[in-house]
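hey m, so remember when u said the tokens were messed up on ur end? i reran from scratch. heres the input so u can diff it against urs
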Amino acid sequence: MMNNDSTADGTDPATGPFDIRKAPLPDREIKRLYLDSLERYSNYTADLWEEWPEADHAGYFGNGISHGNEGIRANGATAFVHALLYKERKNLELTELSADELKRKAIAAIRYSAMTYVTGDYPTVDGSKWGADGWHHRQTSLWASTVGLAAWLIWDELTVETRESVEAMMAAEASEFVEKNPYSGLEYDTMAEENAWGTTSPALAANMFPDHEQSDAWREAALQHMMNSLSTAVDAKDDTVVDGRAVSEWIESHNIHPDYTLENHGFFHPDYASVAPMYLGDSSVFFGLASNPVPGAATHHVFDMWELLQNITTATGEWAYPSGLDWSLHSYENVSYLAWLATYFDDPVARTLESREIQYAAKRQRINDNGRFVGDSAPDDGSEGFYRDAVSARRIGFAYLHHKLWGADDDAVPYEDFARAMHGTTELTHVGVVIHRTPSKFASASWLHNVMGNVTPESQSHLNEPYVITPDQRTLIGRLTDSDDELAAEDYTVTLGDDGFATAAELREGNFDRYVAILSLPGSPVVQLERAVADEDDTLLRERGVPLAIENDELTGGKRTLFTETGERTVTAGDAPDRIELDGHWANVDDRLGMVVLDGSEMVYVGGRGYNRPGARKDMWYGSHSDATNVDASGTDVINRAAIVLPNVDHSDTKTVATAAESLQLPQNVVGIAFSDPGERQHIALANLGPDHETLTVEVDTGGDQQPVREVTAEIDGLMAAFATWQDGELVATSGNYDRQEQSLLVE
């Protein structure tokens, strides 16, 4: 596959579905991209428009109901987009007819939302009103502020009646926060984003209606919730003064861990980690539009969170997802967060990533060919569909406003320099995640919530075809039964190395005790080692082992090429056979991702049909797969295997690795492998995967026919994994302490 290195002018040759410029776009081009994308979105929503006969000059986009995301939330977001486009009509060179239609629908949608709020005279189409701490915690603050902002942008175009209706809505919603304390939540369900979106109505009302008798109280409520959005335990003892008060005097909650990770939906959720500070940025826009200084409370821990999230950024500006994702993939909805960081904070890393992300978002919208951002890949079931696109449009609108207020052609960091600075290992202990980044890959293991591994090929040299895998919760772990029950680690260990990590975990699944190790080694390789023991006679095993979810849709060019020992074949997106048996013990996808499996069952590739995850279509590639194996006796090892995953390695090098890779002959509980990688490094990877957690001494001699690595003794204390890497005869990395004189690898 062609390597998409940039040309002399900073652009990439368009060899894939995208055509992305590596160097950041000028501010004027970014703003133009935002407006062009919103204009295409407004064309899409024309078919979603409904006139409302209950009141003059009123209507709505979508279903117009009082609850759920497809109703007032999506309608308000689309009203905001129409109002913004009308206000910026000169920059778009719209015809007078088009501009008038934008204004008409914006006003009508604003009127519908304000008139059906609890202060209005009408119910929504489902017979109920909305607002004032209604559906889904405090999300109505977000809905109201979006409608209010739409009205503010075109205030001079509104009738007195409509203005009064909007003011009543904003006053009532903002006042909800004057007496109420911020939410607090840490494990499984942070309240960071509830508090953050709760800031939007009081912040908007205070700036939009500065002469209102409640204006000062609204501003105080906004600041209170800002300070309690990204709140940590340490804040309660912090005497730093912010907006005239010590941090400790503001704090009433605890929503993020000391390392600035947070949990939502039961796992470490990067989208919520960016959404919470993003809404603080939205509220900052309201201060900026009123020419008021942004309060310090709006920036509380925002940059700390950004420094955390940089550990999981990719070259596209998206996140890698070490614990999986239950939102739509490639929705590019963190673009307004990146825009805030890039403009108001003048952050050079965010500047580079934002420029790329809006290019991807705009291109995907064109690929959809109907003005939608996520499009048909989002389930059209009321939980996604129009709502998902409306959310994307709203965030693009806010990104544009960030640039209008604070944008400039500031310095940017070349992604290569940023990525180089991020190389190495990071452990996020509070959420049970360990991360390793190299020039070839992002690798991670998650044991506390959503047990899974992640191997994402670095895409800096492939910006026009960046996507290879999707962050599937089964990655590297897989299943031994038909149950989809969530796996839990009964015990796990993590050892950080010089350039990599070694983890091992004990899992329970059905009638099996599973012991799995994931090791990320210097350079490209990621190793999975596994033992599974049956504890009942005649247990039926259906193995789906070492899985990788391969994205295969219009964003990846609509096809994948599989290389195996016997040749190559093309897998067309949505039209693949249900099951493709791959010959041999190695395979490679598109010369971007290789896998070698020793002592496993057959390797199988299962093609996806329609969109089978929000935002993408995935094929499943199983390194070890069997439909049924009868276990004859309890205590039998039904699995004892090793696998090597090779991101950004072509099929020729994958074959070379497979030819020399060797399973090590070790005591029963220990699984190990020795191999050389394409960078001419030699590796050994070992794991004690047994139930007794005893201390073992293992001698490993990889001489003989294979190029010698070393003879070592590994002191592995209990459930533990370890690796050692040599290059040119010199030890270059281990996951523990290495005694050169004794040739002993000590893992403590």
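this time it looks ok to me. Confidence is low (pLDDT under 50) at residues 1-11. if urs says something different then somethings off w ur setup not the seq
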